[in-house]
Specification:
It is built from seven helices and two strands, in the order αααααββαα. The two termini are 22 Å apart. By secondary structure, it is mainly alpha-helical. The chain has a two-stranded antiparallel sheet with strand order 1-2. α2 crosses α3.
């Protein structure tokens, strides 16, 4: 972050208020990024606790959460799409799905006119358990969001969308092979 502050100083030409505004902006950006990291860590912790609560491995619980979320959004996942979402190879995803299916947490269906396409669905038994676990989370998040106007929520949505597309592009390009391109 020191580089950003130095760049702000260099570009300001030494004007007092501009310097203060740039430092204030940089500080706010730092606080915002820290808040996003902390939110991500907390979300990961919720998933870890969901795993413990169900007696699952964390990766299995993360996959189950993705399946449940996709169903809630009306866009159920295929195994390939789940593999992308949880960053596993197709082979590792197949093994994970077998565990979830054997535990009675998911079912694989063939809903498409193309019978080769497999759709992942949560089992009738797991949904009430997931709702019991994530119910307080959903209620508190809705309460927190209700403090903001629809226009503010739209701005947040635009902001998060831009950050997500930036990260997607970085992962697809510069970090495609595991680290930044040399």
């Amino acid at each position: 972050m020191a580089d950003a502050d130095a760049a702000a100083d260099q570009n300001s030409g030494g004007g007092g208020d501009d310097d203060e505004n740039r430092v204030d902006h940089a500080t706010r950006v730092d606080h915002l990024m820290d808040g996003l990291r902390a939110f991500g860590a907390n979300y990961t912790e919720f998933t870890r606790r969901f795993a413990t609560w169900l007696g699952l491995h964390t990766t299995d619980a993360a996959a189950l959460v993705e399946i449940l979320y996709a169903e809630d959004q009306g866009t159920p996942l295929s195994p390939a799409r789940l593999s992308e979402r949880v960053s596993l190879s197709s082979g590792a995803t197949a093994i994970l799905l077998k565990r979830l299916e054997q535990a009675g947490h998911i079912v694989r269906t063939r809903e498409s006119t193309d019978r080769r396409v497999v759709t992942l669905r949560s089992s009738p038994d797991i949904r009430p358990r997931a709702e019991a676990f994530f119910g307080p989370y959903a209620e508190r998040m809705a309460e927190a969001m209700s403090a903001y106007s629809p226009q503010e929520i739209q701005r947040f949505e635009d902001f998060i969308g831009r950050l997500r597309s930036t990260m997607d592009a970085l992962l697809a390009d510069e970090y495609r092979d595991g680290g930044p391109a040399a």
